[in-house]
Amino acid sequence: MGGEQAARLTGLVSARLAYSEIVKTANLRCVYLDHPTTTELDSALSAFEGGLKGRRLHETARLGLTGQNPLDVREPFPKVESHDAYLYGVLATPTDIEDGRSDFFSVQFVVSEAMAIVILWGPNEMGRTRSTELFGKISSDRSTSVPTNHSTSEDPGDVFVRLAKVIVTDLQALVSSLHDAVQRELAEIESALFNERYQSMSAEASRKYQMISRLKFEVVSIESMIAETQNVFNAISSGRVLIHPPFTSGKTETPPFSSDQRIWIEDLLMRARSLKAQRDGLEEEVRLLYERLESLETRRQTAAQMRFAAVASILLLPALIVGYFGQNFEINPWTNAKWSWEISAGVLAFFALVQFIYFKKKKWL
User: Would you give the distance in Å from CA 133 to the centre of its chain?
Assistant: First the structure.
């Protein structure tokens, strides 16, 4: 069994070396399309199928590349698949982490030994600034003086690695921004919570609840996408993604990733795992935000109840005294006294002041 494994490994290495020599002497045609028209799509896909030795794109790949699947921008499923003659894959990144919506940019790609097509899709109502910026990073191997349809010295593995690095870096930046937003909210709420003189932020409570709900929605919405992106790198790292004969330059299965590219993919795998851990941590922080805000609201309600109780108590005793001395009796200790009104008012004020001072010390007011 060990001999068979060694022979297979030798065959794969030989195929990889032969493949590397071929791509060094041939140019890979790359086509980059940003929300393309039907004409642009048909032209690119026809050219790609022309290099597949009589085969056509599978319907699943065609459906994704043409942007006809609405789930690609609502609930994208990152993946990379071997369709014998070519690789088909999907990578995704959120459009925004502050809009409280679950929208994504979907990067669809097919790569054969001769040609690569990379297409960026996203929600139509989104602003073009972020889309244009992301597309510029995706197609960064070309200079601004050449069109999106050009030849490159890259090989198929290089195209995937470059796309993956752009997406993972973008995800890291967005998760970092999300983390900063959560930390700002947490710092503000904790500052209010542990400030003894700060009894209430009721004026901000509604806005805070809205902000935290939006953050929670964004954190939850990227969970499956990050997990599936990690699975993509796992599939490549474990050698499950191959271009099969007779569609390769050699006679054996060809892994379209060199040792250098595999090192990059291992690095991206580690970064994806880190992203998953950061996202899980963010979910816990958002839960803590809710708890802190609930504590503030509970304290606000308690303080309000204490105020009502204190005011009621302050008014209760004077009302009792007034009621007592207001009884319709002819005998009263100072009915005919010269200072009867002043004495009554002074006694009431004294009792009210004593209670006010007591409640103030107890921080009920």
Answer: 18
pLDDT 10s digits, 287-334: 877 777 777 677 677 777 777 777 777 777 777 777 666 655 555 566
Burial of 103 (0-12, 13-18, 19+ CB in 10 A): middle
55 sits in the region (left: phi over 0; alpha: psi -120 to 50; else beta) called beta
Please choose, from the candidates 174, 173, 186, the residue with its C-alpha nearest in 3D space to the C-alpha of residue 218: 174
Between CA 185 and CA 193, with CA 189 as vertex, the angle to 5 degrees is 165
The series of mean pLDDT values per 10 residues for the chain, 365 residues long, is 42 36 55 92 92 85 87 83 88 79 87 90 74 88 49 74 92 88 77 57 62 78 87 84 59 66 89 90 82 72 74 74 62 63 76 81 71
Pairing of β 104-111 and β 115-121: antiparallel
Mark 301-334 as b/e (b = at least 16 C-beta within 10 Å): eebeebeeebeeebeeebeeeeeebeeeeeeeee
Kind of pairing between the strands at 87-94 and 79-82: antiparallel
Please, are residues 73 and 48 in contact by the beta-carbon 8 Å criterion? no
Give the integer Cα–Cα distance in Å for 181 and 276: 18
Amino acid at 99: D
Whole-prediction pTM: 0.69
Taking the C-alpha atoms of residue 289 and residue 215, their distance in angstroms, rounded to an integer, is 10
Q: Which of 156, 186, 163 is nearest to 289 (CA)?
A: 186
Straight-line distance from the first to the last Cα atom of the chain, in angstroms, rounded to the nearest whole number:
83
Q: What is the pLDDT of residues 148-163, one digit of tens each?
A: 555 555 677 888 899 9
- β-bridge mates for residue 118, sequence order: 32, 109
DSSP result, 216-238: HHHHHHTHHHHHHHHHHHHHHHT
Q: What CA dihedral angle connects 12, 13, 18 and 22, to 10 degrees?
A: 90
CA gap 179, 173 in Å, rounded: 10
